[in-house]
Amino acid sequence: MLLAGRAARPIRKIPKLGWFVADPLVARQIYNDSAHFSIVSEGAAGHWWAQVVGEWVEDLFEGPGHTELRTRVRDLFAAKHTDDLVHRVIGDALQQLTVDLDAGRTVDIAERARVLVGRSVSDLVGMTPADIAAVFELADHGDDPDEPFRILFDHVEELVNLAMGTMASTTLDPVAVARARTLAGKLAISVPAAYERADANTTLGRCRELGLPLQHASGLAILMAVAGTDTLASAMTRMVALLHDSGEQHALLAAPERLPDAVREALRVTSPAYLVGRSVTADVEVAGRQLRAGEHVKILTWSITNAVGDFRVHRDYVAQTRQLWFGGGRHLCLGAQLVHSELTGLLDALTAAGRPFEVVERRYRRKVFIPTYETLRIRLAG
Asked: Which residues lie below 8 Å from residue 253, measured CB to CB, with a gap of 6+?
C-alpha cells in the first residue's frame, strides 16, 4: 500500500478509508492547521489513547495543557540532556556491544535493540529490574540481567499491536479496550513511587515539579514509553540492516563525521511511524480538494520520505522532507532528539572498531504493528 501510495500525490480519496496524502508540502499544511484537523478525534492517535488512559489526554494533546507542558519540559529533550540520558541508561550496554564485536562474537542486534529500548522504557516509567520482576512474576533472572527488559519490551509491544486493524477506524472494541487498559495499568504500576522520588531532571520528576497530577504524569509516561518502543527498536535494527545491505557502512567508516547524516538517512528511509492519521473537524480545501468534517486523513510518511531516493550516508539535509518522520507542527515528536541520541550511541558502538560488519542471519518479526526484525545477527568482517 505504501508503495502504491505514491500515486496518491498530492492527495487522493480512497472509498471507506478517507484521504491519503503523499506530498510533503500538503502533509506539512495539514500538520500546521489545528483549526481544521485534529489528533484527538476519531481516526487519529489521540482518540485511540483516550479510550485507553482517559479523555483527559484530549487536553494534553490539543488543549491549553499541551502547549504549556511542551514548553516547560522542552529542556529535558535538548541534545545535552538526551545524550546524558543515553549514557546513564544504556551506556554500559552499548559499550558491551563494542566489546563483544571486537572480540569476534556474533551479536543479535534485534535482541540487543529490544533490551536497549526496554531499559529506556523502564527508566521513563520508573521501573527497576526488581519492579519488573515483581510485576511480571519473574521467579529468577539472576543468570540473565537483561531478561526483565525483554519482558518489559514484549509487554509494551503487545499494547502497541492492539492498534493493528485501525486503518478505517480508531474505535476499539470493548475486549481490546479492556486488554489495553490492563497492559497500561501494569506499565504504570511503579509510577506513583517513582513520581515521588524522581529527580527533577527526569520526565516524572519534572511532571511533579510542574504540579501535573499523578494520573496525568502516569499517562504521559505511558504515552511516551509506548510511542518510542517499537518505533525505536525498528529504527535501530533497520538502520543496521540498511548500512549493510546498501554497502554504505564503508562510506561511513571512511567518513565518520557523516554519522549524524547516517542517522537522519536511516530515519528518513525507515520512517518507523510510516502512516499518521488526522481527522477533519471543519470543511477545508487542501490542494484543490474539498475535505469535509468527519472525514479521515492518512499521511503516508514512508511514501513521502522514500521518494527522495535510496539510503545514502553522504546525502545532505533535504529541506523538503525535513524530519516528517517525526510528524510536524505543534505535534512534532517530543522525543525526536532522544531518538537521535540513542541511534547515534548505537552507531558509535557499532563503528568503534573501524571495521565493516556482515549479517550472519536475519528473520523478520511477524504480526507486529511496526515492521522490524526478530533476529539480525552480525559480526565484524575479516
From this structure: 351, 354, 355, 356
